[in-house]
Predict the structure.
Amino acid sequence: MSSGNFKTAAQLTDVSGWVVVGSGCGSGLGLQMAKSLAASGAKVYIASRRRELLDKIASEHTGPGEIIPLTLDHSDKQSIQTAVEEISKREKYIDLFLANAAVTRSRLVTTQPKDVNPAEYSRMLFEQPMEDWDELLRINLSALYFSCVAFMPLLAANPHKERASIITIGSISGTTTISQGGQYAYNVSKAGVHSLTKMLATDFKHPSIGVRVNSIAPGFFPSEMTVVEGDPEAWNKRKGVKERLGEQDDIASAMYALCTNRYMNGVVLHVDGGWLLDNPGSAN
């Protein structure tokens, strides 16, 4: 086969003209992915509750693609439905839904089980508010499910075979069996995202739908959610990051791999600099 039969790297990852909706894309990793897509020629609806922030982001974008603000309360089913209706008025279909909205409320337990007696460790864990569990599971898992389901018909309407997809944002915290300082609720919510991704991928691959579903499981990135008081070094020390924090190109290139490779479905792609190699499932 001659080299003329191969597409270039630029052609393989071309998203120009795509229509993308991203929930929770007003900051952090979501915003980085949205800006990268827009810079590559996509029309990106960034959805969040913070409309003033979204308007500012959109006004600062200079092209070549578009960034369009979309008010969406990820935790409210009516708000999700309203957002879907708004997009449906403007677009016949969408190419990609980024399910990025999430929160973290875990209160870390710095003491290790080996350092205290069982009763004392139990007390520390039991002090975690049940409300934290409720909110984390509601926002990070339940709301993500309803958003993916609601936007699925717009994806299924895509006329380009196998192009339409959903990318959920999980976490290495959902893969490792280390509680990372007792943040059980957050880790469980992200493990649920990984499992939900594979179930949705299984159902949505039916020919009548034809939507791929994959997940990115980031490691430690300097986003609003993961930097301790704006100090990356403090986060590195707390979480055992030995090399460096992830950068925006690291997360963007993973996103392009999942959304443009039409043979990838049901994948949980870890982007962690090898952290899981050292922390696969041992608390030692």
Observations:
- Residues 15-272 form a domain with the Rossmann fold fold (CATH 3.40.50.720).
- The chain has a mean pLDDT of 89.
- The CA atoms of residues 89 and 124 lie 51 Å apart.
- The chain is about 45% helix and 15% strand.
